[in-house]
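Repro:
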Amino acid sequence: MALSVFARDSGVETLGYVLTGNLVLSIMFGNQNNVQSHVGYIRFQGMLDYFASLPVRKQTLVLAILCAFLLLSLPSLVATILFGAWLLDIPIRLSPLIMLVVPLSALPMAGLGALIGAIARTPEEGGAISLVVSLVMLGIGPVVAPPERLPAVLLTLGKFSPATYAASALRQVLLGPVTGQILWDFVALSGFTCLAFWLIGRKMDWRNQ
């Protein structure tokens, strides 16, 4: 609602960025913070020792945690879409591809959240790092604002942020039209996911040392 006040006179395109930017905040960074917090909690409680005794891969554990939080976030996600479209007076052109875009958008930052929770020295430090990462990635690239409103340096940095590609994919499957760009968005999000989960396998220690 606050963002819509500043973007109300900027046209439908800018309002579309406001809506999808809020969805990115919920899907990517909301779940990132939840996964970070949960991994940090079970780590400092010594529960990872239990999982280390099971035939469970680290990536599988993180994926299971993400699935739980993603399911819990779906009602608020639907409410944000419906209320946001009504508030901003934006027509929704929903594509079936949204069923693929939502989980694919959540995966990279969930992996990063798990890494933060696994390496942070204290729960407070993990929360602070996760918050900073969220704010930085929201600010770089055309996530909550169209590219013509951002300086060139932020657009360049945005190419290295998964939030940029998630926002692009969400705009296409929610507001239309779906173009060939969505294939590049899928490739980029898949690449960031593979990198995050590879780092989980390398850096996440089962035991809190």
